[in-house]
């Protein structure tokens, strides 16, 4: 197949494609980190935090699909393979083994803050080149910021 | 927290834990591989294969949760972090960029065959040490073998 | 298409394939027998038995799909054609015409007992060659034995 | 139980009863043929045809119940036993073993065309003796003709 | 408001209107009779017959709405008032007080047979003047005949 | 069957039984009156009033079942036959033929007011003899008074 | 693809095809007219008529699919393109701009009356050549006549 | 009724109104074109493309309502009549008669590309005058671009 | 935790608390008795009575939760432990082993009559001290009396 | 419109009206207070208390509608305007800014206790004048007392 | 708890916080005003307007939660207490007592117009400081403008 | 009724029957213990633990039905009467009165560990005599071990 004919100029495509690929790596690793915590959690607030983490997983998985399909829709191939995610993720990684609930809450709060900061840069970067992509990123950012508040409120 | 008190002996625990950790890596990477193909697919059968791949993703994600939670339920910490998956996966990786539908069908058929072979080993290995875990692995293997048939039938 | 590559050895495949084909004929004819009774029933307990028979039909139809798809998934072609069913079924057949409710209850109790006996043989036979198939047959047997009890309790 | 008192005259009953019994055999065997193809299918269009065939099965099963219950409602005993279906069906039978998707599409198109021809005769035959039965047969014929078009369009 | 302008000729309207008004009285009283039995029932089969009667009530109530709205749609005012129903109904009435289940089954079988006979006359009468109304009456008759069979089968 | 053994004294039973039988006649005729208006309605507010009347029908039908089953539960046979309703109803009857929407709203407001007055008497009468019945009547009265307000608000 | 092999004779096909194509144009334009009114409506009864018009749209859209798929099922190509609809529609067109609610009710009543008249001709025309198509047209006509009554009742 | 008082200035209103009216014509004709292909389709991929086209129809119909109601909400009358659509549409029209599946996929890919180009112009045009309208158009464009990718991927 | 501060006076609390604790024991044992019969039932009416008993179980379990939570809401600790239920229940106990359907119907009728008698005493006792509790008990009593009628009607 | 004609005497109306108006102010402010805490909450138990507060909001909003519509149904105009609520509420107000979870639990426990006390007075006051209103207030009080227990249990 | 760490600069935070607090007061009072009208409404269009007002309530309540949670997510405490709403609302207040339907429609049209004007100012104000908040406000404004059109269309 | 004819030998029946009866007592008392804690709970984690306990109740109740019906299906009468449960249960009993949340979590963790140990013995015991029963016990054990982990994780 010939590459999908993009509705964007080459320059716009490059900027937008980078924003989407970056968002994809963030969201895949966010889902892996949240699941790792979901499984290895311990502590008095186990049940609540265990279930709360799955809200983050759901959000991250829905976001993955949206940004990857947006990328290919404008003619950029998304890369969500394990090696790519492991090598390029900027999310601080969790330790192996049991994870105490208060530490998980702090860690996820921190992870979300960092991901949000990168999303805000991507929102700024795509404003001119592709408002359709920007609108998608804004929607995901709103959900991330809501989760960030809810985790931070527990600290 | 003290480690979860396992209902298994140390030896049984070791064998069962390895089976579950291996299954976890297989299932996480299966979901990533299937999503990568889901996004970068092209060809006359795009729509059908695109949707069929999401059935594999759903199966792999449901399986991840079951094996990881089974692991921690018997006192073994599951490890589903990006680095762990990237380093330990034995699943053959897809190329970056567009993927033709017939090649995807062949690749997924092959991936499933390999994963199934490892699951059959894990089923044999857990028969004595933990029939509860074995029963879980049998259930997942049946779903994997059904998907394997459906992909192979298209080749 | 080349035959589906089976995860089983030839010997295991033969035993398992026979068990599944036998189960398929049993389940298709069970559904036909139960429908025949469902339609031609008479008697004081018509309404209850009429509806109860459809539970058997549902169970038999769901089981058909599972065993036939299990067969092809391991590389054996299931045969559920009318002639095959008519020639190979071992289920005692109903008379044509109206069927009194108490006789139907007795007949279905008997049919289920015979089918169950054959399922128990298949469960024993597949224990070694294919525990995945065995697990499927166990699940269907449990449902058949539950229906057998409920019909027998009415006699 | 005495035979159900029919709202039809003897002559009308005979014609209508034959139409319904013929329809019953057609619909039971149509469901068996479509399931046989559903299970043994191969080819590039496996997934779509596999699922499409289940639409035919659903239609045929719903139709079976309607015509059989219509028969008994007017005082005629429907006969849907395996032997009856195998002996009386006029539907051309499928070969055993794997079935290529394009051949299945052609075969089902042909099977549906033949069943439809017989339904149109039954519709004509029941116009006078029992418009209630005719209305039921018209409704089923419409569904069969819709499926016939959809299979034929793929050839 | 001026009368609804009918799509039918005066003669067709008269015949069709009478058929619909007759059907309305039959269906309202059928629902009242079935409820009376539903409430005052006794006997070994209480639970089944009690619930079965509500199927008749549901059918009769849905039919009432359809025939009454059909009447006004062609410009005839339906009359479903208590006095009209009580004076014009031809359905044999139940005794006051407790009603034994076998007598109820026999009575409802008889009531349905009589209502069906009148519906068959209305179907014949409306064939020429209004096939749209005829089609509606045929649909209701099929349901009534199905219930008639199921009650008769219990006698 | 012997009469249902009542948990009430003879005197309490008589008062409660009369209240329930009266309520039954009111609710059956209310449903018939509301349906008659539902079908023959005309005027600018046709669609709204047409649908609003069905809320009254639903309320009246649900109430019928509750009061009749309450009656038999305490050992009193409810009588909801057409003749009984026509002879004993105190609800003012509608004219035959088309009914203008404003007149319908006024008529239903009036009907509801009268029914409510009788329910309030029944609530007072059953306070001592059977608080369980009283509670049921209070619940229905609340719904009737809510509908009364909503119809009156349109006048 | 060769043309779909029709179950009808050439003459029957021609008559039936014309009836279906005519019905298709009527139903597509009915949906466009009803939406135009839905959007540009004003007046005291805005909310009710606005929502009522969407019932007509739903009916017209469901009918379009049924008649177009019926046409192709018997071997006639339906034509529902914008130019075809604009040139062949016989439905009187609405003015541009705001539309008062009472005028909309009158206009839709008139549109429905005209469409119904043409449907009744098509029902008569297809009686001999194709009772299956006739049955479909009767079903749609019943819904159109019900909506016609409900709009006319508001005038 | 006086015109809806717009929250926009005259100039902003004119630009926004034109964007919405253009979008309305695009979306109505897109739904007609997709339905025409849905009905007249043939070819090996009939079933998949047939169903895929209905996703486009659903998207186009939901979009029609949103843009037309947005237009009237800011005080501009939308015009979605058959004549307007036929005369103003810029979408390339399909031939009459059967349409091969690969040609349909190519044609729809092309139609979507053209519609998307016009939506991107409308998004640019409404940025200043009405960000609320722009946000609506961005949302629809995202869906159109997703469908465009999925059709193009099949070519 | 300090004891829940009750909104009732000490005297009112004592009376109300006893009524609720008594109701709790009745309802827990009612659910155990009904399940015991549900499992060990035999006879011609097996299927109907088997399912009917589960309605009693559902009612008893919902009631348990309501009365126990009502108790603690007013500051009284409910006691639903196995020993407490076994020692304090006044419900006549079933024999071990198979239970014939007619005997079960008679036994449950009797059990319900006794439980109802105690509920009526509790309703009388709580009228003054706590109308909120009384209202809850009345609601449960109504359901118990309805089931009592339905079981008694089968004797 | 003339005032709604009340089914109550003037004196009864006055007492009942005051009870309902008081309940309305309590319930509106309860919903505002619970939402204020829902939004500004912090602390280890954030997630649980955050969601628990929305149960109180749902209860309070459902109660508002019931008491206000009950008021107008008996002829008294409910007043739920912001100024009325702010001036007449007796509920202790929360501070602005962040609210720690344990303080919120204590505050809501206290608020509920005060509201419950006023509801118990209203239940006593309406016993004679209007048992229908009393029954409504009892139902709401039960829900409030259940929530009171659940908040108090956390202190 | 330390204040939530905001992703915004102090200046951006101040502007955005004011916009959100203003929106919160508008939306809370809009829900109170719409409920007040919902309860005290009278007139020929009572039923339609009564239900239409609840659409406004639902919209306003959903919006409250979104803006308040957005505020706290960026580190600003929302204030939705009764006193705050009563003192700061700029929405014109309704009279106490019955409200005629045409006056309510006019009043709500006017209220919505004023709220929309303030939302448009907030959308302009937040464009630079926080596009995520702006996107939320745009979404609410679109719904408000749609309701404004629908109310205005009835005047 | 004669005893259900068991598909098992006498010896197999005895072993399997004991395993099922033991499991039944465990599961009934587990549901009672969990409800007792559900009702009498106090402490900071009240809400979470209160709801978590109901997951255990649901699991235990579903398990009761499965093991009891399995027992009777193989010809053994299950005994779930209050006295039997109280006398034979090996589950450590809770104190009467309020129960602090941390003590409940520890107690339930301990109860589950003991029940699991007995289930593992029953799984081993039924491996030879009845693999169908074993499969059922394995499925319940998996759920119990999952809950055990989740409670233990909170300690």
UniProtKB/TrEMBL annotation, chains A, B, C, D, E, F, G, H, I, J, K, L:
InterPro entries: DPS_DNA-bd, DPS_DNA-bd_CS, Ferritin-like, Ferritin-like_SF, Ferritin_DPS_dom
Lineage top rank: taxon: Bacteria
GO MF assignments: ferric iron binding; oxidoreductase activity, acting on metal ions
Signal peptide extent: none
Pfam families registered for this protein in UniProt: Ferritin
Domain (Ferritin/DPS) ranges: 18-154
Entry's family note: Belongs to the Dps family.
The protein's name: Ferritin Dps family protein
Taxonomic placement: Bacteria, Bacillati, Actinomycetota, Actinomycetes, Streptosporangiales
